[in-house]
Amino acid sequence: QVQLKESGGGLVQAGGSLRLSCTASGRSLSSNAMAWFRQPPDQEREFVATTSWIGGMTSVADSVKGRFYISRDNGKNTVYLQMNDLRPEDTAVYYCAVGRSEIFGIVQDDYEYWGQGTQVTVSS
Fold first, then answer.
1. Where residue 107 falls among pLDDT bands split at 50, 70, 90?
2. For all residues of the chain together, what is the average pLDDT?
3. What are phi and psi of 100, to 5 degrees?
């Protein structure tokens, strides 16, 4: 069994920064892709960013490109999301996920394990 725990969310003013962390426990999944998705209020869950294990390749959504950065520490089974220049429209519950393979896809079906989410609220 694999469990994912997100942390680092909170309330921040527009223009500020936060760093989210997600740590996996249980079976080792260090070779699988890891990603962040988010679900704004009254909206569908959407892709944010993903990263591979081998090569450290990344992909980010256009809505956060240049502001958000994803990274991972395989030794700690942890993935991070550095969020800069936050905007009110970034307000959402942020979820981390572990992929079914090393492929760092951008759709929800590419991911097998999910955390319970951490709330990020950006005030104007």
1. very high
2. 93
3. -75, -15
